[in-house]
Design goal:
Blueprint lengths: L1 H16 L2 E5 L5 E5 L4 E3 L12 E6 L7 E4 L5 E5 L4 E5 L8 E5 L5 E7 L5 H15 L1 E13 L2 E12 L2 E12 L2 E10 L7 H8 L2 E3 L2
């Protein structure tokens, strides 16, 4: 469904385009500064939790994921099953390095890489705050730490509505001294359960490169 791809791409462009900076006021309060000149107190976000639980399961790449798509911006890559996934360098979204698509399906992915090292909790906070500003009826459905191929990431599951279409996206957020990565996958709410295995296999291909 090409319409789904285009509409969700617009959402993610919004996620990435709205840059934010954390700052501290003279009274010691943390605030988020948006590039449109607005700001808000970090403590006012109902989606910020003091503690994020660790999933005890160890997540590893699938044996069928035989192709390594490497980032040229960060020291990360994602192992893919080339028979199931197609990819291309992103041209519609300057923030993303690659766009991906499940062949013959309505499941889409993005790999966003930056040379800047960003704390995991900050990546999570920015993703949530930007999603709330772009999508209506936004919900953060799940958040947890995971060990993926030996590296600690934050997993987020979110949903929201854009022009009447309800979509869901899952993402792994990872950062090291050499850069940060957001690996995202999304589809419509109606198709989400159908693609559960494909989503897990895709996200669990994330690796840090030597």
């Amino acid at each position: 469904m090409r319409i789904l791809s285009l509409m969700c791409a617009l959402v993610f462009i919004g996620f990435c385009a709205q840059a934010q900076t954390k700052a501290v006021t003279e009274t010691g309060d943390e605030v988020l500064l948006f590039d449109d000149g607005t700001w808000k107190y970090v403590k006012d976000s109902v989606y910020v939790k003091k503690e994020i639980s660790m999933n005890p399961k160890k997540f590893v790449k699938s044996a069928s994921a035989t192709f390594l798509l490497k980032s040229k911006k960060a020291n990360t890559g994602v192992w893919l099953n080339p028979k199931k996934w197609s990819f291309e360098k992103s041209v519609t979204n300057e923030a993303a390095e690659y766009n991906l698509n499940l062949r013959g399906g309505d499941l889409y992915g993005l790999m966003i890489n930056e040379r800047l090292s960003v704390p995991l909790e900050t990546l999570k906070l920015v993703a949530v705050e930007n999603a709330k500003r772009v999508a209506t009826n936004f919900k953060l459905l799940k958040e947890e730490y995971r060990m993926v191929n030996g590296k600690k990431v934050i997993f987020l599951e979110m949903e929201g509505v854009l022009q009447g279409l309800k979509f869901v996206y899952n993402g792994y957020y990872y950062s090291s001294k050499k850069g940060s990565t957001q690996l995202l996958v999304y589809t419509s709410r109606e198709l989400y359960k159908e693609y559960q295995n494909d989503i897990a296999e895709f996200l669990n291909g994330l690796v840090e490169l030597e």
